[in-house]
Amino acid sequence: MATAISFGAFGLGALLMGALILPIAVVASFTQWGKSTRVQRALRRQVGHLCQLFVWLMRTLGVLDYQISGYEQHDAKGPLLILANHPSLIDVIFLLAMYPESQCVVKRALWVNPFTHLVMRSADYISNADPELLLARCVESLQRGNTLILFPEGTRTGPGDPLDFKAGAATIAVRADCDILPVLIDVSPTTLTKSDPWYSVPSRQVMMRLSVKPTLRMDAELLKDLGPRMASRSFNQRLEAWFGDALMTEYRA
To answer: How far apart are CA 160 and CA 189, in angstroms?
Structure first.
């Protein structure tokens, strides 16, 4: 029942927020004023505040509890690429709650949805519909000094499955030449994985654990020696190995 209330509240909250922001979003979408960084960040902050409220609601209802470590040690000022593993549907909710001014990549379904399109566009989120345009927009965003949230796996990883990082995150990091803030996420028991429907409720309370680690950066010598294309591939392999080792050390030691 608490899980159903949480999903219902999230849907209702999203609709109400959409209704409140829609007039601003309409003006923002068709005027130069709306294209200012200040307005876009303000709209993203409102989305982040909704995520914070949703996290509070889930904890209050007893659906889940959470632990966040390392968060206070890092100033998330851009340009910064926040990378995290992706075990659950609600990972992005926590990351947007933690870093409310950040941009993120959104699925095409949200981008074309008439109820969410203008808000997504006005907040300057990035659609994943076109892979080449996605890379270009992410790099351009980071070069403008923004903070960007990205899941290198591209989709949720099933319980027990090995990490499978796609090349996109590493390519963006190489092209933008920016710092990477890694966030390790563990969900126990697993919930809202790619194969779980929302009503598949675990037998005990879910614990979300997020650990923010020191920033990473690609070795400049790697780019110099290999060139951009091969450097991206090599860096992607290093990122995947780093996350795999860090997750094992942090949560499964």
So the answer is: 12
